[in-house]
Design a protein that fits this description.
heterodimer; A: elongated; B: 508 residues; alpha+beta
Chain lengths: 117, 508
Amino acid sequence: MTDMTMEIAAAFLLSYTAWAAFALAMRKHSRRVWSDASTPLRRETRMASRLVGAVCLALSFIACVSQWGWAGGSVAWFGVLTATALGFVFLLAYAPRLAAGTAGATLLASPAAFYIM
Amino acid sequence: MGWLHTWAGLVVGWVLFFMFLTGTAGYFDVEIDRWMQPERSLPQAAMPAERAAAVGLKRLAAAAPGAERWFIGLPGYRSPDLRLFWRMPPGPDGKRGATGRAQLDAATGEPLQHRDTGGGQLLYRMHYDFHYMPHKVANWIAGVCTMFMLIAIVTGIVIHKRIFADFFTFRSHKGQRSWLDAHNVLSVLALPYHLMITYSGLIFFAYLYMAPVVAATYGAGEENRRVYFDELSGRDDIPERAGPPAALAPLGPLVKDAERRMGAGGVHYLNIYNPGDANARVVIAGGELVPSRKRTKLRFDGTTGTLLRASNPHSASYVTWQTLLGLHEGLFAGPALRWLYFLTALMGTAMIGAGLVLWTAKRRAKTGGTVGFRLVEKLNIGTVAGLPIAVAAFFWANRLIPVGLEGRAAWEAHAMFIVWASMLLHAFFRPASRAWGEQLWLAAGAFGLLPLLNALTTDKHLGVTLPARAWELAGFDLTMFGFGAAFAWVALSRMRKNRRSAKQTVPA
């Protein structure tokens, strides 16, 4: 059981991206990032954002399983989901723009991490 | 349902907070052990399994000839030492034989020299044995409280109508609203952990709580109980002593064979039954650490060294049972997963704390003056802020109680509970708002200054452990500093909030 690998990084990045995608598809969170006055996201955009979230969640599960195996990976996946969700909620509460900005970065970084893992 | 959630959580909330906090520390029990034994050298590479087994065997043969069983625990992940244990044969009166144990340095094979301390193991055991109580009583209390916890979780899920709508919602600086948000977010985000740890916690002592179920089929009494467990776990059925003495086969080849099957470093322990007898058996256990706690077990004839049987298959119900216990303990978790366990367990602790504070925040305006309200508020301060201080005191005591003092290990634990009691007293004698502020700052200092205390009293401080990359030691100091910073942040934002509300009520 090695540690600190690209798999772990990919699992965290993907899972963070997923939570951000789900949250920013909700009006009450997106308007804190892009000001109250901004027009609400279109329905298609929200659906697309959720789809990205679902795909990222699934990929983070794959990353966990390839790091820890089926048994350990399933356990670790829940841990990764919890940790990244907590980090995202904390940022969203105290620095919403930073939360979204970080999500942009993880969205770009996670396919790369997943590819080279 | 809301009523049930509130009261199931409140009446045992402080005990649950204690169980969660000390249990959380338990995920790093070995690291805490290490930190509390600063006389030990920095972690070194352990000797190979074959040599460790030989060293252990030599000591056992000298210390306990004619034993019924010798145990050699090999150094490995989560068990840095070479551990020996022995049990002598039963006496003529049928009583179980005397036992003994030893702990050796895994690099040198010499007995470990360090101060007398309960260490992380003691802290971890507190979460179900409550330290001062007979085990059975404590386990029963823990079980009742855990049942309340399970009720609180299930009712909490039912009454939380906006799990998905409020999944990411935390509104700071909103008083009661913020406490509810915090409680919800900590509950929902780590819900899989909370459910798993609470349910599996009940399963741990299921045989205590439901003893009559076994007794109904196997009959009452300790002897019948043992029969049941032997059958259940397919325990290494060991023949009686034959009588004629026979030399034990060399262990080296057996350990080598086991290591070939279990992977390098995969051998966990050896059990040698009836050593020196013609009916000697050697059982070697190990393999990859998995959530189901499954181990490969090899049973050898102890005199000829022939392999008799490899592993015993288990029933599905046995594996399910073991998996629940394995998930609870997390012994299979490597460093990254271990940190995730620690974080989610910490969220569980914080969830209980936020729930307790929420109870008072919700009722302050209406029933703030009643005796019941005050009692809850004081217990909250003395536990949510006071218990962490007490845990810090446990570590301070480890460094400050003189090394040679008689019973110092016991006094480390006494120090923890004396400080907890003092914090509760302090809460009762100070106005609530002041008591919160003072204890939060005290917690910040007690944790934040631990690395400094460590540097003043030992030579295993950050200045040494960081350059040596001894992460299990450096990690402790850094984590304590992190807790200190977190408490300071909470105390500071409380002060700012109070100043703000004071300005609003008293116009300049």
